[in-house]
Write a structure and sequence with these properties.
Layout: H1 2-18, E1 55-61, H2 75-78, H3 83-89, E2 91-92, E3 98-101, E4 105-108, H4 114-128, E5 137-142, E6 145-151, E7 157-161, H5 168-174, E8 182-193, E9 196-202, E10 222-227, H6 229-233, H7 239-261
Parallel strand pairs: 6-10
Antiparallel strand pairs: 1-2, 1-5, 3-4, 6-7, 8-9, 8-10
Length: 262
């Protein structure tokens, strides 16, 4: 009888520990609800600095569009948001950190912000080819916000969003959300910089996640969602699945016991 009781207790403990608790599935939880509200501080976002293999969409405008037609070949098609068109018609940053523009030739953009690139292009055009009356101004944008997400998400892979800023929860939502076996407390963001790769770990179940330096993504970030430990146990993701596993084990144990007795 004591042995049977121990078996029952063991299987019930297996059942309860194998389930994934609800609190591990809810995003941005307030850990201390009784704490006084804190003053909202503005988030300071560092501008993205261009890297090799980035693709830029550059549009030069003037009072007379004929003066700048050479810079804006197929620009109407690019506005359609087609990634393939942007790849073939955009200005790619080469291995030396340069982009090559008509007339202006090579311009080094590695490590510069989009605003710095815009100012450089306008200054060179006004200094070498146009006067102020031409009304020259440039629009410089990335050809989409590109990031890669892998691991326990429903739709992993490289994604491109056509917007200037993307945060981690937006990126996760765009990948079809984290699966039930994904560890929302262990989401890693790997960021490539000029000095190397930086890895950040974020707990998306904690409301303080939005204060992380990696919560607001930068282009070319790599997001990795690790699995919860319950996935490796194979006992089931939900209570029903775990109960089915326990019942199967009990049935197998009972059958084996009866066969051995006979």
């Amino acid at each position: 009888m004591n042995r049977i009781t121990l078996y029952i207790l063991f299987f019930f403990s297996l059942f309860f520990t194998s389930c994934i608790p609800t609190k591990d599935l809810i995003y941005l939880q307030e850990n201390n609800k009784n704490a006084p509200s804190q003053q909202v501080e503005p988030v300071v976002l560092k501008p993205y600095r261009l890297q090799i293999n980035d693709i830029l969409n550059i549009n030069i405008k003037a009072i007379d569009p004929k003066f700048v037609e050479i810079f804006n070949v197929n620009v109407q098609n690019q506005l359609g948001g087609n990634e393939l068109i942007s790849y073939f018609n955009g200005y790619a940053v080469d291995d030396h950190g340069n982009i090559r523009l008509p007339i202006l030739g090579d311009i080094n953009v590695l490590g510069r912000t989009l605003e710095e690139v815009r100012i450089t292009i306008e200054e060179r055009l006004l200094k070498e080819y146009f006067n102020k009356e031409a009304g020259i101004f440039a629009v410089v944008k990335l050809a989409g916000f590109r990031y890669t997400i892998n691991g326990e998400v429903n739709n992993p892979g490289t994604k491109v969003l056509y917007q200037d800023r993307v945060n981690l929860l937006e990126a996760v939502a765009n990948a079809g959300d984290i699966t039930i076996t994904g560890n929302r407390k262990d989401v890693k963001v790997i960021r490539r910089t000029q000095t190397g790769n930086n890895t950040y770990t974020i707990d998306l179940t904690d409301a303080n996640a939005i204060n992380s330096v990696a919560y607001n993504l930068q282009p070319n970030d790599y997001i990795l969602v690790n699995p919860v430990k319950q996935k490796t146990w194979g006992t089931g993701k939900t209570g029903i699945e775990s109960l089915s596993t326990v019942i199967s084990i009990l049935s197998l144990a009972t059958t084996t016991f009866l066969l051995l007795r006979n």
